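To assess whether the prediction recovers the assembly geometry, we first specified each molecular entity separately, as shown.
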Amino acid sequence: METIKKDILNYLNNKSFMDGNTQLNDNDSLTQNGIMDSIGLIELMDYICEKYSIEIPEDMLTPENFDSLQGITDLIVKLTE
Amino acid sequence: MRIDTYITEYARKSPHNVAIEEGKNSISYSCLDEDINSITSSMMDFGHCRFAILAESGIQYIKMLMAVYRSNNIAIPLPIELPMFSLERILDTAHINNIIATETQYSRLGEDFFECFETVVVVSNDTSVKTLRKRIVREINNPDTRLVLYTSGTTGTPKGVMLSDRNLIANAGSIIEVLDIIPDDKAAMVISPHHAFGNSIIDSQLMAGGSIGVGNMNFIESTFSLIESGISIFYGVPSTYRMLLRHPERFKKAFGNVRMAASAGGGMDGVTVKNIKESNPDITILPMYGQTEATARLAYLPPEDVDKFGDTIGKPIPGVILDVFDADNRPVGPDIAGELVAKGDNILIGYLDDEMATEKKIIDGWMYTGDLAQKLPNGYFRLLGRKDDLIKIGDHRVNPREVEKYIENNNEVTNVFVVPVPHEIMGNAISLMVIPGQGTDVENLHAFCRKNLPGYLCPREILFIDNPPLSENGKISNRSIIEGYQNVKKSM
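The predicted structure of the complete assembly is given in tokenized form:
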């Protein structure tokens, strides 16, 4: 679980969505803190699908599952089980 | 009449009808009218002053906008999705003394941001109003100005489009007529309300006594759920539809009961039209054309002609006259290319504090759109590109020359050239060709763009080149840059 979280954080940093100074807690909203917009979210989604060889069903694309580090991590864990 | 007087009228005629829905919240016309009144009272004694509005999309934003109208002031919505430097550029040019903000935006931006305002009004989630400080500064404004919408706030010099009550009502009236909006209609607003398109959804729905379902495009399932909640009219830019159509099955289910799919902010391509039609054969597809300077809309393509004339913008909306003029401001005949010009009650008053730009935009009562076009023998109009070189990315107009300058001035590079490249969702995206200087670093450049430019301007690719991509006559244009880009790609 921590590995997944770290991987997503690395992605956000490498793709310059945020920099080392950005404080992001596990439950902080990515969209309301100006880190992601709708196009950024699509990029992130494509990355996750490829990296973890999963398909994310549309009904899971909600703020609960996709707007925070914790939400995304839980979603990946659920889909890779 | 002002737009908000229609709300008062419906509050009397059909007080319990829903005006706006947002997530689990909704508000009736009578409650909306009362809440507007209570916010209005904090701004009553100003007398036609400029008020910046900082609010998220939705019920709060609409209440605050209407309260600025009702108190006879001038609303200047700040697009909250813009990066800070863009907001600051707007504030630098707009000379605004007063601001009204939601509690959320006030705490997000912090006290420092608000320091430059003489009057600061904060509206909390339960619509209680706090005036943090107040000093009325007399202003001289065009007496008809009601709303100022900013265009090209991302990179170009921001221009404030001044619109009057008459502009807003005329355009909303035309839209109601073309879409045949009735009080039973519930329209989805998933795009920003701070720009012309979103604003026109608010105006036309509330003037028709219909309702608005507010959402966004961040989380596709939430968007589809909104559409399934009884939306009858869906509005989107072409990229909105392309995003939703990435999920064809879900799209089909959600759009089953939508009667109209309206679009603006760029031509609808044939594939997107076909995919929407296949999902719901009964849906009416209505592509529209316009610009902020025309309040919102100028033309529409009648649904029965979407297949045959899909490459045109159709005909003027009711109340608008369109024509094509040559370089000497004289009308040209059918099939001849020239600049598209427009006349009507929806045409802007002018640009805020910028008489020179206004004089160039409106000549002898005609507004010059900056779009090249030709008139077809049947009276429809076909667009032939921008007069200057703006690139359309999603629903944003981007001036590549200004993006280049901005990147050059802030990085270790010799020259930067913006290349428009196709993007499956946004229509266009940009790549960069860079003549490196000492210490140019691709990673740093990328990071700079990601951090300082809005997401849609983040380059797909950065290529190093040795010489500028000049045309045969030694000039830089989108065309010469695209040709240069293709040559670099070929030799890779």
